[in-house]
């Protein structure tokens, strides 16, 4: 390998659902793993972000896990931790299709290379691909909001990314911050062992009753896609679908566990305080406040728009046709990641063949950054 990196056709960064889907489609297109394609994954084992989920998140509680292309996930025990089930499934998938994922490998930067190639700098050395598929997801970038007094809190603060399960909160007063599915799951679990729980969200939660069909799914994806087309940071698909009103959630609402309070004004050494003078005592603050796209390594390519996100047409970065983002924005769901992997490979095949780029759709004027993300 020279200073300009090992030459190949495609580098895939990330081996979660989106990355493995892309690797599968690349192999089907005739690109050989290890020779034409390399898949880099920073995680210690197969499983993507699933391997880091808390033990009480069993496979039966996972909503919307879609099988990878070409190989179904069958016979899984719904009572087994999702980290184990999906980790084993991903490992078997990598072996079945001989994807030759390199791990653990940290990608530190992607920049302009020589002769029209990209330069991917990593802990495994440098690579010089003609195209890049970025499938790094969000798990590595937990979002921690900042509030006055946060540094004075004498108790424990942690994020969903480090949630160990309910047993660590026995006898504690727990303040859960966030309006998504993870916050609800945490509250329902923790309330059974904690001395007290308090739920705080910026906006009133919206609960979705009844079936969620294909039409509703398309509408939700369209809302996320619209932000990406404007170059704004993407929202998750789940954030626009509402919270499913399951039997467990109904019970939580009836018991008061899911009685939501508006966002506090400041954090105190022993809890939180609101503008009306009310307070709550807490031993733990659990921030279930979501994640942001892990794309800092792409910064040298200057792909971001004034709104703060990367504008994407399909999966292709508008500012650089060699770069495709899968599992980003509207393709962040497991079924969306599968489709995006195939779509990215179709465009990359055209790129490698020297065909002209598709004519982009009309792009709206950038929207100023701000507001809820």
Describe this structure in words.
The structure is a single chain. This protein has 373 residues and is α/β, with parallel strands linked by helices. 22% of the residues lie in helices and 21% in strands. It has 6 helices and 18 strands. The strands form 4 sheets. Strands 1, 2, 3, 4, 5, 16, 17 and 18 form an 8-stranded mixed sheet that branches. Strand 1 (6-13), helix 1 and strand 2 form a beta-alpha-beta unit. Helix 1 (17-28) runs parallel beside helix 6 (334-352).
Primary descriptors:
disordered C terminus; eight-stranded mixed sheet; alpha/beta; five-stranded parallel sheet; 373 residues; 18 strands; 22% helix; single chain
Structure at a glance:
The protein is an alpha/beta fold.
Note the topology:
Elements (H helix, E strand, L loop, with lengths): L5 E8 L3 H12 L8 E4 L41 H15 L10 E6 L5 E5 L2 E10 L21 E4 L13 E5 L3 H10 L5 E6 L5 E2 L5 H16 L13 E2 L2 H9 L4 E3 L3 E3 L2 E3 L5 E3 L2 E4 L24 E2 L2 E2 L2 E6 L8 H19 L21
Parallel strand pairs: 1-2, 1-5, 5-18, 6-15, 7-8, 7-15, 8-11, 9-10
Antiparallel strand pairs: 3-4, 4-5, 12-13, 13-14, 16-17, 17-18
Shape: globular
Unreliable sequence segments: 361-373
User: What is the tally of helical segments?
Assistant: 6
What is the CA-based Rg, rounded?
Answer: 22 Å
Please outline the major beta sheet. 8 strands, mixed
What is the helix fraction of residues, given as a range? 10-25%
* Overall mean confidence score, pLDDT: 88
For the secondary structure, the number of strands is 18
End-to-end span in angstroms? 42 Å
Percent strand: 15-25%
Q: What letter string, H or E per element, gives the SSE order?
A: EHEHEEEEEHEEHEHEEEEEEEEH
By helix and strand content, what is the structural category? Answer: alpha/beta
């Amino acid at each position: 390998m020279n200073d300009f990196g090992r030459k190949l056709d495609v580098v895939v960064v990330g081996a979660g659902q989106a990355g493995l889907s892309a690797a599968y489609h690349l192999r089907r297109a005739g690109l050989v793993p290890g020779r034409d394609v390399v898949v880099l994954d920073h995680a210690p084992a197969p499983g993507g972000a699933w391997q880091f989920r808390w033990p009480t998140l069993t496979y039966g509680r996972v909503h919307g896990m879609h099988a990878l292309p070409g190989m179904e996930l069958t016979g899984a025990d719904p009572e087994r931790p999702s980290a184990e089930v999906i980790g084993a499934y991903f490992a078997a998938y990598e072996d079945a299709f001989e994807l030759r994922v390199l791990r653990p490998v940290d990608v530190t930067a992607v920049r302009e290379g020589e002769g029209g190639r990209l330069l991917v700098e990593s802990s495994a050395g440098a690579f010089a691909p003609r195209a890049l598929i970025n499938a790094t997801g969000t798990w590595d970038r937990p979002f921690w909001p900042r509030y006055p007094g946060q540094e004075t809190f004498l108790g424990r603060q942690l994020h969903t990314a480090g949630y160990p399960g309910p047993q660590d909160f026995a006898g504690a007063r727990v303040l859960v911050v966030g309006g998504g599915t993870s916050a609800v799951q945490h509250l329902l679990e923790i309330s059974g062992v904690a001395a007290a729980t308090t739920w705080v969200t910026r906006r009133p939660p919206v609960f979705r009753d009844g079936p969620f069909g294909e039409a509703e799914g398309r509408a939700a994806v369209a809302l996320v896609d619209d932000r990406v087309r404007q170059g704004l940071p993407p929202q998750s698909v789940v954030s626009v679908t509402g919270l499913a009103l399951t039997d467990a959630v109904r019970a939580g609402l009836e018991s008061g566990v899911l009685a939501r309070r508006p966002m506090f004004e400041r954090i105190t050494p022993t809890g939180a305080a609101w503008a009306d003078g009310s307070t709550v005592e807490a031993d733990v603050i659990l921030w279930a406040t979501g994640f942001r796209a892990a794309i800092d390594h792409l910064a040298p390519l200057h792909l971001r728009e004034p709104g703060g996100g990367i504008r994407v047409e399909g999966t292709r970065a508008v500012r650089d046709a060699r770069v495709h983002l899968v599992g980003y924005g509207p393709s962040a769901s497991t079924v969306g990641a599968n489709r995006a992997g195939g779509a990215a490979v179709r465009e990359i095949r055209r790129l490698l063949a020297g065909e002209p780029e598709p004519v982009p759709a009309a792009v709206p004027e950038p929207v100023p950054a701000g507001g809820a993300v």
